[in-house]
Amino acid sequence: MAEHFPRYVDGGPAPAQDGATFRTFEPATRRHLADVPRCGPADVETAVAAARRAFDRGPWPRMAPDERAAVLRRIAERISAESGRLAELEVRDNGTTVRKALGADVPGARAAFAWSAWWAERLPTRLGRPGTTEGRSPHYLRWQPLGVVAAIVPWNLPLLLAAWRIAPAIAAGNTCVVKPASFTSLTALELVRLMHECGLPPGVVNVVTGPGGTTGDSLVRARGVDLVAFTGSDAVGESVRSGAAGAGVSTRLDLGGKSPNVVLADADLDRAAAGVAWSIFLHNGQVCMAGSRAVVHTDVYDGFVERIRRRAGALRLGDPLDPDTDLGPLVSRNQARTARHFTERGLGQGARLVCGGRMPEPGELPEGLDPGAYFLPTVLADVAPEDTVAQEEIFGPVLSVLRARDDADAVRVANASRYGLSAGVWSADAEHARTVAEALRAEQVWINDYRLVDLDPPPATDGPAGTAWDRVTNELDAYRSRQVVVDSTDGPPGLAPTPYHLLGSGLPPAVSRPRSTP
Length: 518
Known about the structure:
Blueprint: E1 3-4, E2 7-9, E3 12-14, E4 21-25, E5 32-37, H1 41-56, H2 65-81, H3 83-94, H4 98-120, E6 126-128, E7 139-145, E8 148-152, H5 158-171, E9 175-179, H6 186-197, E10 205-207, H7 212-220, E11 227-231, H8 234-246, E12 250-254, E13 260-263, H9 269-281, E14 293-297, H10 301-314, H11 333-348, E15 352-355, E16 378-381, H12 388-391, E17 398-404, H13 407-415, E18 422-426, H14 430-437, E19 444-447, H15 469-478, E20 480-486
Parallel strand pairs: 1-5, 8-9, 8-11, 9-10, 11-12, 13-14, 13-18, 14-17, 16-17, 18-19
Antiparallel strand pairs: 2-3, 4-5, 6-7, 7-20, 15-16
Helix pairs in contact: 1-7, 2-4, 3-4, 3-6, 4-5, 4-15, 5-6, 5-15, 9-10
GO molecular function, one term: oxidoreductase activity, acting on the aldehyde or oxo group of donors, NAD or NADP as acceptor
Region (Disordered): 485-518
Family: Belongs to the aldehyde dehydrogenase family.
């Protein structure tokens, strides 16, 4: 029987104001999974008003960072305690495998809150000018929360990305209105329910659900929002940017990727093939950082293609709730058709089909599963840099393998993309790999690895942090604004006097200027 999920506004569950709902379905079976509120403009307005009150008059932004951190840690612990429920919802709602949900999505959501708590206690909220006494300087920087954040979460990693949008934002003292993708709303709703049970004050995090064209557009243009944070496709991101700009609201957009793995002539091909297969076939390639291009030195090209063919062919498609399943369905039949469309486009432009390239035939999947939502792991060889499959984000299990004559050509081919999100470099020589890595236009480059999943916990002390520390720092800074304060009541604080004499005769004589208290 289908479940009924409410929206969450001002600390409590509620239906849409007009009672409207929409259905969500399991991708693997097409069974009716849940009924979810179809929120309209009035629901969005109510949610934004609740977040605005919580920020302007509520306790959350005024709490000390360690007080907020304590709530975030309780949420992290509760996520672990509810891992089974959250994982099953994610599998049934999104189509990911239970192995990935339990091994990456739920632990990753927990890590988002644990890391945000850790950094909330350590990032400075005020910094005195060098050479002055900390905390007493009349010349200082201070950081403050932005206000109300509208967080629009995509369908590919609904629990994980909801957590990474919410946790840093509220750790910095903001309040949020979250809008999950319409057909993968359930884990975001469940997460916010758990958050309120952990002592989060009313109005700090609110959830509205519904189609992007109505609910999402209303949120982007809502009065009272200070920042729109969006993760998703380039096309929708441009629409969000335009809508928010029209409302005078800032945006933070995390869009697509077409990330390369560069396999050099001296690479360990077995290791490289394993890493590349992981980077593109995990979660059916429905990850913005998926390594959807392999740029391979011509001397090892054929050997690499054969190894990646064997690995792709060994992956087991099946019921996502079966722990032995490697790949479940894509998020929808439409997404599987998209993978097929791009594959056919690549073949039409001259690519060679190595394996896959189609939906499963009847009988190739266990009974009860929908073949129309599945797509076989696909490898296309002899792809040219200008081909569509080498340029466009597919968001499916489709790998394009391109040939490079030498290192310089590999860098040229890898950089021949409008994206620059991530990359991998594979070489037995670390110095050789670093030289190539530093020539790539990518925000993050892994050498002999591809870390799509990063579950390093925060350190128990102030010792060395794991590799997630930089991400959390950037996330928290994205949700804070900086202010410079210079108090010249008692004279310029270590600065040259303001040259008032450049206009008129300068400052009048000081008569009874108040003294500041230390």
